[in-house]
Amino acid sequence: MARACDVYGIGNALVDIQYRVTPEFLARAGIEKGVMTLIGEDRHHELLEHLGNDVLKRSSGGSAANSMIAVANLGGRATYACKVAKDEYGDFYLQDLAAAGVASNGFQGEGITGKCLVMITDDADRTMNTYLGITGTFGPEQLEPDVIRESDYLYIEGYLVASDDGFDAAVAAQAVAHAGRTRVSLSLSDPSIVAAFGDRMRALVAGGVDLLFCNEAEARAFTETGNENDACSALETLVGAYAVTYEARGAVVWHGGKRFHSPGFSVDAVDTNGAGDMFAGAYLFGMTHGLDAAQSAKLANYASMRVVAQYGPRLDESLDGEIEQILSM
Known about the structure:
The chain is built from 13 helices and 16 strands. By secondary structure, the protein is α/β, with parallel strands linked by helices. The longest helix has 16 residues, at about 165-180. It is globular. The two termini are about 30 Å apart. The model has no long low-confidence stretch (mean pLDDT about 95).
């Protein structure tokens, strides 16, 4: 019997605000290039003032939200559990998420809606400074156990382990999923998160993960290995399946006890923000719509290529009508 939802995502609800900047700006502002850095409220206000009003794009975001939007973009059914504030940004977030076709619990509380300041340089690299705001208190009480049980997959954003409440929510959601025979997928999110909260990540993996998403740097950090092959071999002893992304090279996938390489698609990248999120969402769409692992990886690589060729972490046009053509490439 088909379930009511394809993927139930949990993660931080952040309004993504994108800017074009120079490496010199990042240096002057004391911002480490190419990584995600958590910042406090005062620093978030300071950076908003420095960055000014020259905004490329504003959208509902957060890593798992971007992946759920990718599922919906391809014609799937996605639900996102999140927490935003009763403010202008919170209202915008929920309206934008609904417009993207993603269902949500729509919880709003007192505080400040979280924001991710995405700074893009001419080399298409993205640097993120994230103020969690109220999403830092996202916890088990925001979960919808009945919806998790009626979903094919639970998708846990790895960034959640950076807060006590978020980690508790991830553990609770994982337990509900296992009890309801919902498959569990997890993203490692960022090497800095793996480095700082590796014990929590490993606890989630030890709790049972059917499908792991990460990039090469995250895989090596998580497994504490020095090369691609060793990292993949180590992951194969820990999770049911994985997809490790390698930017333009595509992805290495392990599924059903077999490892294979899925080639990437060539493109002139302008913004790598959201590439991994798009990959995860498209792959999960494939796995919940009758595609095998190789087809799901091909679709995910193509969708990631399309998203890095534009500004912003999501596609402006649906790929729903292009899937058959993409798989035939």
